[in-house]
Amino acid sequence: MKAHTTRKKALYAALMGLAMLTCANRALSQTADSAAKPAEKATVSESLLAIEHAKLNTADASPVDPGHYEVEIGCSWTQAKRAWDGDGAAHSRGLAREQAVGPTLTVGIMENVDVSIGLDYLWLRDDDNAAPTTGEGFGDFSFGGRYRFFTSGKYRIEAAWISGFTAPTGNHGNDDELGASQEFWSWDNSLVVSKDWEHWTMNAELGWSLPFGEKRDDDRGTLIANLAAGYQILEWLQPEVELNYSREYANGEADESALAVTAGLVMPINDCLRVNLGVQQAVWGENADKATVAMLAVKLGF
Asked: What is the 3-state secondary structure (H, E, C) of 133-175?
């Protein structure tokens, strides 16, 4: 298993290196083209800074341009030592930890429409589970599309519908390892609005994940509601904060709810490179872990 994991890490590193090399070549070409042109005065107003709509945990309404594609390598570290009961009271729990790393590919196929696929590799630990307490393996395969159905340049607002599926292709749990899969299909939908005011930008997302199939057991769906705001300080720097709410509905069991706060930096370094860095902290919940999440994502556009 250790050698298997090492090969996966090497594959991700090779993909990342190849993508960054391509991006560097593109950046050098753009620099050379700019150098060949007559120098222009740097009189661009600060109010004309390009606004980046992407956020850490809230979707945005801006699809990838037709004929272009983006590759994102993301990683996260989630940990909890406390949890909330059904009355919202916090108490200690055994260590719960999840590490995830994986790529997402997004392709612009026509005006206002893009499609994406994604897959993670996960390392799991849950000391409150009787047995087993650890596990690792590929997570579930996700695929979907985004359709921007409304845009207004005058009011600087966009709206999009994001729809996709999660397929239970990941490692299932057994007597020896925790499973990395949710073990059932789900249909995931979100309505997203992005709005700009000068240097300020805001995203709002309302979504629902509908499980289906025999293996969904008591799961009946998950509601998400996210709100994010960022301020474009420089062309390459946007601090942002978010409120992230989720509620998992179950048949015959107590629902799980959590409210979290995200703070981070969105850094569009140039036309083909963006780095996202941030932390999420759960601040309230019912029947949920009080988790802390550290996130890093590098996105390359071509």
From this structure: CEEEEECCEEEEEEEEEEEECCCCEEEEEEEEEEECCCCCCCC
